[in-house]
Amino acid sequence: MRKSRYLAWITWLLVGTQTAIASSQTVESQPKEAIAGGAKTLAEAGFLSETLQPKITPTQQTINPKTAQNTEQAQRRSLRISPRIGASFTTGAGVGYESSFTGIEGFVPLLQTPGSNLAFLQGKLLLSTDDSNLSSNLLLGYRSYLSQDKRILGGYVAYDTRNTENASFGQLGAGFESLGEFWDILANAYIPVGETRKQTQENIFDSVIPFAQPRFQSNYLAIANQQRRIDRRFEAAMSGFDVEGGLKIASLGRTGDVRGYGGIYYYDVPGGEDTLGGRARIEARPTDNFRLGLTLSSDGIFGTNLVLSLGANFPGTRPRGATQEDRVLARMGESVTRMANIAVDEQFESESFLLPSAIFAINPTTNQPLFFRHVNLGMGTGNGTFESPAGTLEAALAVAQANDIVYVQAGTNPGIPAFTIPNGVQVLSTGPVQRIDTVQLGNIQLLGSGTGVLPTVTGTVAAGNGIVTMGSDSVLSGFAIQVAGSEQVNGIKGTNVNNVTIRDNTITNAFSEGIFLENATGKVLISNNIVRDTRNPETDTSLESGIFIWNYKGDADITISNNRVETNFNATNYRIDGIEVNVCRDVDALFVPKPCTAPSKATVRILDNVIAHNGTIAGGADGIDLNLGNFATAEFIISGNQLSKIPDEGVSIGAVANAVGTFTITNNTVRSVGDSGIEVDLFKPDSAIAPAVNLFNTTKTQFTITGNTLDTTDNDGIDFELADRADLTVTIASNTINKSGNGSSGDRGIDIQANDRAVTRATIESNIISNSSADGIRLATAASATIRGNTISASANQAIKLENVTESATITSNNITASAKESISLTEAAGTVLINNNTISGSANNTNNAAILRNSKGVVNVTVSGNNIANSNGVAISLSGNAQGTVVVENNPITTTGTALELRVSETANLTSATIRGNTISGTPTSIEGLVFRAFDDAKTNVTISNNQIRSIAGRGIGIEASDRSNSQFTISGNTIDSAKTIAIDPNVSGNAVLSLRISGNTISNTNSGNTTSGGRGIEPDAKDSSTLRLLLENNTISGSGGAGISTYAFDNSNVSVVARNNNLTNNNNVQNPEAPSAFAVEADPNSLGTSPKVCVALSSNIGTGNKNNLDFSVYNGNPSVATFQIESLSLNTGTFKVESLITAPTLNPTTLPTEFSSVASGTCPLP
Q: Would you give the DSSP letter of residue 424?
């Protein structure tokens, strides 16, 4: 309908055009006089706005009409059209093409009567700019000039070609033209020839339309129908025509002009819709050699396009000799105006349809369809298809091939006899949910699975075999395996198999092992099984387990997950472990010699299993038992398991010989076990107890034990034992350990013990350990230990105990409460020891130390800092033997029930440097001493005590005991000591010891015992026996002492030098009946017959005020006959000075010394 309407419009337009032309010719061929009412001028015709008046030049020449006609004919003969060539460029996209193109064209006259008619040949070669495709035009045309009408009528036929990269097309063309000075009519027709519609591209897409649920079909699993979509692309050459009319708009120079055209075009395309469009264009020819144009078109297929065209030719289109009067005739040589390109429509088609066959699920391992052999127990009678299942499992297994799946429905569940799974076969029942992997849909659930009914398997096999025997690459899933009570057989067994999966089965009443795999290599999965009531063998082989894997060759990747191993009976001497994995194990009670002869590797994951004994069970059964032997390399991950009421160890791990193991034990719960929660033995086998092939241990193991809960163990919570040359790196973190030990066994929350040349590196952090029957944490013999962030409470012995640490020990940020003995104890800790930022609170009235270190050998550098210590006996450090070391104790707040800090050096030990600074020490009613230092034997010490605050000590603030042959140097400075009951600073030296002591800048106040006679003393150095005391006292402030502020005593054969300067003593010796004669007293007292102490005193610039009895300073020679008492200076002191001897009455502020005292020169008294 639409095409007929377009044709009617076009027919009307053509008829109207021809009528107009005929009418024009009729009018022009008649004399002007004969045209009634006709226009006489161009203005009257409407072409000019004013009347042209011809200019007549008078002449005397007479014109011969014949001669004039001959002259005109000669002139026309000279208007010959010449051949030419040209070039053009046209932008794209346009109607029927996409790319801009360039063109080379030629115009060749064939026959011509100059000034009358012309037959010509016009050709073009076009090249697209986007893809360099060639197109061409070849046109044969004819034009006739109507001189009377000054109009050219013409027509042509043409043949066009076009190459579009994907296709080539040919086209016939024809056209008509009417060209005049002022208006033109153009019409062209285009008729493609040959194959006008060509397919350029075809894409086939297959897609799957899945079923709502996969369904069985014969022996296959159909998952979907297949849909195919075919997308095709076409290019089609379009037939059509165009008609346009034009008017001259303006003249350009002598020969140029601008013309405007408007018209319509119509195209019909095979395989598509037709279209009618409109076109308007402007064409300018500024010169005879150059042209340009601008075209605007719009239609329903190609849309709206604006096209620019440029062209040039040589020579020009006008014939030589053409004059202004030949403006129309000169257009005889113009190129025909038509579409240069064949119009091509790009088309797209798509069709979709279903393929006749279903899509089967593809096995991703084989890339072939999954193949099922169906069994319906007791009901099927067929050949194993879904439509006709077999009635027995035996029938299906007899014909099963590798990669087959035997799919078993319980049917009447008559019972299945013992069977062997061929290699590569899966035996699945519909009882559990069965999921399989497919290429197309990933992991899907099998139709009919999840009924909850497990087919029963029972039968008789030879002793030592399994009711079900696994093959390589086999799967067993969804069966209830029941072993008769008298049979000595396993539930499931596989020997020398590769890639085995055992899941979703129930094994009951098996003998020795519910599941037993020997040399199971490749990928091994044991998951979601229930192993119930596995029976003891008569003889203990140490190889019994509910789930047991024993490999002594090959490599394996083993996962044992989500199984439940349980007993529901009472038993004594029960030895069936829950889960046991052995790699190269060659140690057992009966010594079954199956060692590895080549390296064997395993990755073992034991995850989320439950092992429980519901009855009353005793014996040697472990929860999880892992063993490595010579040539073994294994990685174990033990996570998320729940173990309860285990007769022996919760998790037991053993490694011997040259085994290498990495163990991650995390997030397990172990409750109520008869031995340790986690036990690790890395020792040399004892052939008398457990025979083995390899009687040595050079294992290298790494353990990470985190996030476990260990509650109520009869032995240690976590226990490591190493020997020989075993090498252990262990991290124990974030575990909760409660009630380790049975109350009398003395067991630990965490115990790591190494012997021989074994090496341990341990990190123990962020654990919660409570109610241990012995120590909270013990490390015995370790290269390094880091213990941090733990919370330890109510340990029956020490909270943290380290013995024989050879390289470093860090004990930091722990919270320790209510330990019955020391909170932190280190013995023979060499290297670097850091005890810092711990919070320690002892049990009520605890007389043990918060932290204690005892060394008799080696070199140690100890730092104790930032600890908050309460309700305990503080810190004690002891060096003896030939031990050496340095000590820093700083910034610790200590509330002591005994001694806040005790530093003890004896034998030939050498404390090269000790710094005690910045501590805050508070006493309790039972506290004995703030700081005490003891040097014995031949010990050497160098101690600095500075900037400490000591308050309310019931005994001494700072005590020093130097004896025997020890040599000690002390600097005591900047300390504040308040309210000590007996003596604020009490240095004592005896034997042949040497004590060099600088006491400076201290503030001592309120030293008072409350006794009305003895009081308390600020500083009281004593020297006895044959000891040497070198004492410097300066810049100290001492006030409120019940007794003397400073009193120094030289007994026996001691040698004492006292240099005191710039000290300030106020309100001392203030009890009712003071013992001391003054606030500052120096006395020489032989103490017994035959001894002769020696004293040298230099007192200067000291100040005494407000002291009792107005006595500030005094010296006393207890026996002038034997004692030597030298006084270097008593000058420049402020206060009352008393000089007294055994035989001389006291003298106050004497100007000269009595004879019992010797005045010596300045500098005589040696300084420390």
A: T
Residue 1126: pLDDT over 50 = yes
DSSP per-residue codes, 784-840: EEEEES-EEE--SS-SEEEEEEEEEEEEES-EEE--SS-SEEEEEE-EEEEEES-EE
Structure tokens at 66: 């014949």
Distance set, CA 449 to CA 359, 444, 514, 1050 (Å): 21, 11, 25, 100
Are 655 and 627 spatial neighbours (Cβ–Cβ below 8 Å)? yes
Residue 850 lies in a domain: no
Q: How many CB atoms lie within 10 A of CB 40?
A: 11
Residue 110 in any domain: the answer is yes
Query: What are 532-554's pLDDT values in tens digits?
Result: 999 987 776 777 899 999 999 99
Residues 220, 369 contacting (CB under 8 angstroms): yes
Shared domain check, 217 and 96: no
Q: How many residues does the chain have?
A: 1168
> Are 146 and 211 members of one domain?
no
What average pLDDT does this structure show over 681-700? 71
Say how far apart CA 918 and CA 72 lie, in whole Å: 134
Q: Would you call 569 helix, strand, or coil by DSSP?
A: coil
Indicate the number of domains in the chain: 4
Residues 220 and 244 reside in one and the same domain: no
- Residue 393 backbone phi and psi in degrees, to 5: -70, -35
Answer yes or no: do 174 and 294 share one domain: yes
Whether 101 and 218 map to the same domain: the answer is no
Q: Which two tokens stand for residue 734?
A: 């974030």
Q: Can you tell me whether residue 10 is helix, strand or coil?
A: helix
- For residue 249, count other CB atoms closer than 10 A to its CB: 13
Kindly state whether residues 192 and 214 are assigned to the same domain.
no
Task: Calculate ∠ Cα 346-347-349, nearest 5°.
Answer: 160
Distances (CA, A) of 423 to 400, 420, 427, 507, 793: 10, 9, 11, 22, 57
Specify whether 658 is located in the same domain as 578. yes
Amino acid at 616: T
Within a domain: residue 811? no
Within 13 Å and on the Cβ side, how many CA atoms surround 296?
A: 4
The yes-or-no verdict on residue 499 having pLDDT over 60 is yes
Q: What is the Cα–Cα distance from 395 to 381, expressed in whole angstroms?
A: 10
Helices marked H in 30-100: 65-77
pLDDT tens digits for range 229-268 = 999 999 999 999 999 999 999 988 877 899 999 999 999 9
Q: Which domain holds residue 1060?
A: 955-1159
What long-range pairs does 10-15 form, CB within 8 A, spacing at least 24? 10/241, 10/243, 10/264, 10/266, 13/243, 13/264, 14/187, 14/243
pLDDT tens-digit profile of 1151-1163?
888 888 999 999 9
Rg (CA), the chain: 59
Q: Which distant-in-sequence residues (6+ apart) come within 8 Å of 852 by Cβ?
A: 822, 824, 825, 826, 875, 876, 877, 878
CA distance 1043 to 1008: 7
Distances in Å between the alpha carbon of 860 and those of 604, 807, 826, 968? 42, 9, 11, 19
Is 517 in contact with 497 (CB distance < 8 Å)? Answer: yes
Helix (H, G, I), strand (E, B) or coil at 11: helix
- pLDDT tens profile 40-95: 333 333 333 333 344 434 434 444 544 444 544 544 555 788 999 999 999 988 99
Residue found by looking up tokens 């979709």 in the block: 352
Residues paired with 169 in a beta bridge: 162
Residue 907 lies in a domain: no
Residues 1015, 1074, single domain; the answer is yes
How does DSSP assign 272-306, residue by residue? Answer: S--EEEEEEEEEEESSSSEEEEEEEEEETTTEEEE
Q: Strand pairing of 151-163 and 134-146?
A: antiparallel
Tell whether the torsion through CA atoms of 6, 11, 16 and 18 is positive or negative.
Answer: positive
